[in-house]
Amino acid sequence: MSTAPSPAKQLAGFIAKYDPGVARLARGCRATLRKRLPTAHELVYDNYQFLAIGYSASDRASDCLVSLAVSPKGVALSFYYGASLPDPQGLLLGSGTQNRFVRLESAASLRAPAIEALIRAAIAQADTPLPKRGRGALTIKSVSAKQRPRRAARD
């Protein structure tokens, strides 16, 4: 009788595919966001291009406030509805009609006042509020059979 690995073990395996520095950054950023948003559901998508860990008010991606986007180049904090956020510091990158992101140098970047203000604004504008109590579940939503390499190409 074989047992499927727990979502936590699966996520650890997804992160372990990256170079050690990127994996360390991803784990640190995840721990920081988990502390910051303890009631949020963590929705994991191991997609073709990125590993995305969304922080959502429910188990629906449409209720996602922010997500970590992990790539071989590093980790970004992505705002699902970032195009509508106030950004007086001009931190948000991207030109799409909805999503914006900030590249993270360290987990401590998530505690910078300007990034914290963006997170607060994303929470405030959400249609579905975060639960007041409890701990959000970790759910593996999808794993793409085909993926780009998770480690940076070596010259």
Secondary structure elements and their pairing?
Layout: H1 7-16, H2 20-36, E1 41-46, E2 51-56, E3 64-71, E4 74-79, E5 100-104, H3 113-125, E6 138-143
Parallel strand pairs: 1-6
Antiparallel strand pairs: 1-2, 2-3, 3-4, 4-5
Strand order of the largest sheet: 5-4-3-2-1-6
Helix vs. strand class: alpha+beta
What is the radius of gyration computed over CA atoms, rounded to a whole number of angstroms? 15 Å
**Highest CATH level, the class:** Alpha Beta
Terminal Cα separation, in Å?
44 Å
Largest sheet: number of strands, sense, barrel closure: 6 strands, mixed
Detail the poorly predicted runs. Answer: none
Strand content: 15-25%
Q: Could you tell me the mean pLDDT? A: 90
CATH architecture heading: Alpha-Beta Complex
Count the domains: 1
Number of helices: 3
Rough shape? globular
- Total strands: the figure is 6
CATH topology: Aspartate Aminotransferase, domain 1
General description of the model:
Helices cover 26% and strands 24% of the residues. It has 155 residues and is of the alpha+beta class. The chain has a single domain, classed as Aspartate Aminotransferase, domain 1 (Alpha-Beta Complex), CATH 3.90.1150. Strand 1 and strand 2 form a beta hairpin. The protein starts with 6 loop residues before the first helix and ends in a 12-residue tail after the last strand.
